[in-house]
């Protein structure tokens, strides 16, 4: 790359591929606020969770506060930014990404309220809005990715993730139709449909996405070079096989498929952990920061979560048992990874917007001036301890333990929100999000 | 005639935002030459290909170099061969990042 001098002092970073700051940041801010809402609601609902009735309206609303309000929202913003860095392509339609935020926001608020009150019309109307918003997001991303020349396992993970997301929300639409009675006979498939929706969203979209982007982000944040990539394609294949075998198990009610699927899933995570180990061994930064350790711990969480899944197939724990498995995987694998990477991604994005201006005399503002990443250690540790305690207490049906663990997890997530919001400096952010971009 | 020492000093004000070390001490600047009167060619690298701070660092290098006396034009080439390695860092930077 060769370029003549032509820098406008004070102009900040002008990247040719990155979307305007407000596009990813609006989604990420909503995600951080979503984490806050989830933290409060999780503490408030701890008694309901202890009773183990996952189909209750308040528990369904709570779950979607995490999946849609916090995780998907944050991840959409991060993906809009990371895709341009990882695949060196611009977003296929920045206006669609920008305006879709408002549709997504409306859909999420409406759907959350409808779930809390179990309002049929609201579920249908806002559910349709949510499906449309997610379709738009996934389409924008897939079209962007198809234009990249960078192919390989990471590409496979990220494209597959968005394919599974489209399938997950399509199944969600069927669930709404089944619940409303609009399609006669569909309600008899409610159980497999719910399981399919959870599998596609959690095991399909979120898992494939965090696995794929980890292959880019871990080397980037550890300055790793020369690590082996030969295993990555097998990880991708194993993850696909695991998902489809479990899906067959769900629809045939044959436990053998569920066990086989979980075994393939364990193999995929073991392969991913081996890759992460290789990346960390070849790192050029001596210190392994707490968020990087947390991402590896989340990989181990994947193995444990799938072992728990296989064990639950044996166990007649009913819905409460499955609630424990889903909660462990959602929090221990997906949420932990997203929180950990947020400690690295958000400060970089803020730095790029505010402090990447051409240098003057003296040391400029660096990312370490925005956040001391070591402060993430107690938060991530408390989160991990809370999750293990919650899983153990739920398995032992010890209600005070469940309530206490939920509160510890809530405090950890709330602390995460406060730390990230301090990096964002909301007063500055308000102006930046609404300036013409 | 460009004073390359002055350019080098100016480049010490350009930092990798993630690592917190300037580009000179990080060993990212491979070559600086005045091929024609007032025209400076800089060959540099990044710590990792696909570095998200790539644009920021290279444009800041251009700007900082252009502030030196006698510099009329700056060309920055970002190259990947030879790839950057920690041995390219100054002793101070190696110490700061725990390599010594």
Describe this structure as you would to a colleague.
The complex is a heterodimer of chains A (437) and B (100). With 437 residues, chain A is mainly alpha-helical. Chain A has a single domain, classed as Cytochrome c oxidase-like, subunit I domain (Cytochrome C Oxidase, Chain A, Up-down Bundle), CATH 1.20.210. Helix content of chain A is 78%, strand content 1%. Chain A is built from 15 helices and one strand, in the order E-H-H-H-H-H-H-H-H-H-H-H-H-H-H-H. In chain A, helix 3 runs antiparallel to helix 4, helix 3 runs parallel beside helix 11 and helix 13 runs antiparallel to helix 14. The N terminus of chain A is likely disordered. The longest helix of chain B has 13 residues. Chain B has a three-stranded mixed sheet with strand order 1-2-3. Chain B has four helices and three strands. At the A-B interface, strand 1, helix 7 and helix 11 of A face helix 3 and strand 3 of B.
Based on CA inertia axes, which overall geometry of chain B fits? globular
N-end to C-end Cα span of chain A: 27 Å
At the fourth level of CATH, the homologous superfamily of chain A is: Cytochrome c oxidase-like, subunit I domain
Helices and strands of chain A, in N-to-C order?
Answer: EHHHHHHHHHHHHHHH
Overall pLDDT metric of chain B: 88
Beta-strand portion of chain A reads under 5%
Q: What share of the residues of chain A lie within helices?
A: over 70%
Question: What proportion of the residues of chain B form beta strands (DSSP E)?
Answer: 15-25%
> What spatial form of chain A do the alpha-carbon principal axes imply?
globular
Q: What would CATH call the architecture of chain A?
A: Up-down Bundle
SS-based structural class of chain A?
mainly alpha
What are the key terms here?
heterodimer, A: 437 residues, mainly alpha, Cytochrome C Oxidase, Chain A, 78% helix, 1% strand, disordered N terminus, B: 100 residues, alpha+beta, three-stranded mixed sheet, 4 helices, globular
């Amino acid at each position: 790359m060769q370029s003549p001098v032509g820098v406008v002092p004070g102009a900040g970073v002008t990247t040719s591929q990155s979307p305007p700051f407000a596009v990813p940041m609006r989604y990420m801010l909503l995600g951080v606020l979503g984490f806050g809402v989830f933290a409060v609601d999780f503490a408030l609902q701890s008694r309901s969770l202890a009773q183990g009735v996952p189909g209750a309206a308040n528990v369904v609303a709570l779950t979607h506060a995490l999946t849609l309000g916090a995780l998907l929202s944050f991840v959409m913003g991060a993906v809009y930014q990371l895709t341009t860095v990882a695949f060196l392509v611009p977003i296929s339609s920045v206006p669609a990404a920008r305006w879709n935020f408002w549709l997504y926001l409306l859909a999420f608020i409406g759907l959350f309220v409808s779930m809390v009150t179990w309002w049929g019309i609201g579920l249908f109307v806002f559910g349709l809005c949510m499906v449309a918003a997610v379709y738009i997001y996934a389409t924008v991303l897939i079209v962007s990715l198809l234009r990249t020349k960078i192919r390989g396992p990471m590409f496979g993970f990220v494209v597959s993730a968005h394919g599974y997301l489209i399938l997950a929300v399509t199944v969600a639409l069927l669930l709404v139709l089944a619940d409303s009675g609009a399609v006669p006979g569909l309600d008899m498939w409610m159980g497999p449909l719910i399981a399919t929706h959870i599998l596609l969203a959690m095991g399909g979209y979120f898992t494939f996405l965090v696995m794929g982007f980890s292959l880019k982000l871990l080397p980037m944040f550890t300055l790793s070079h020369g690590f082996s990539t030969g295993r990555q394609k097998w990880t991708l294949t194993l993850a696909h096989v695991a998902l489809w075998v479990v899906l067959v198990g769900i629809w045939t009610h044959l436990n053998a498929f569920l066990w086989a699927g979980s075994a393939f899933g364990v193999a995929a995570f073991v392969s991913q952990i081996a890759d992460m180990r290789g990346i960390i061994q070849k790192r050029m930064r001596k210190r392994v920061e707490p968020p990087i350790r947390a991402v590896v711990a989340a990989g181990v969480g994947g193995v444990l979560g799938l072992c728990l899944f296989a064990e639950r197939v044996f166990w007649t724990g009913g819905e409460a048992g499955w609630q424990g498995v889903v909660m462990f995987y959602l929090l221990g694998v997906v949420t932990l990874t997203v929180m950990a990477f947020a400690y690295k991604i958000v400060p970089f994005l803020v730095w790029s917007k505010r402090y990447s201006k051409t240098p003057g005399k003296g040391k400029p503002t660096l990312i370490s001036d925005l956040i001391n990443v070591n402060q993430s250690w107690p938060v991530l540790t408390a989160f991990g301890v809370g999750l293990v305690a919650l899983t153990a207490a739920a398995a032992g049906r010890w209600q005070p333990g469940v309530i206490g663990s939920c509160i510890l997890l809530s405090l950890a997530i709330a602390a995460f929100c406060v730390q990230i919001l301090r990096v964002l400096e909301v007063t500055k952010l308000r102006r930046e999000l609404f300036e013409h971009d | 005639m460009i004073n390359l020492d002055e350019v080098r000093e100016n480049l010490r004000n350009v930092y990798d935002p993630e690592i917190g070390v300037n580009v000179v001490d990080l060993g990212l600047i491979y070559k600086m030459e005045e091929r024609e009167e007032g025209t400076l060619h800089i060959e540099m690298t990044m710590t990792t290909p696909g570095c998200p701070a790539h644009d920021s660092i290279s444009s800041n290098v251009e700007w900082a170099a252009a502030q030196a006396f006698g510099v009329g034009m700056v060309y920055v080439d970002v190259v990947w061969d030879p790839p950057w390695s920690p041995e390219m860092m100054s002793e101070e930077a190696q110490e700061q990042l725990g390599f010594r």
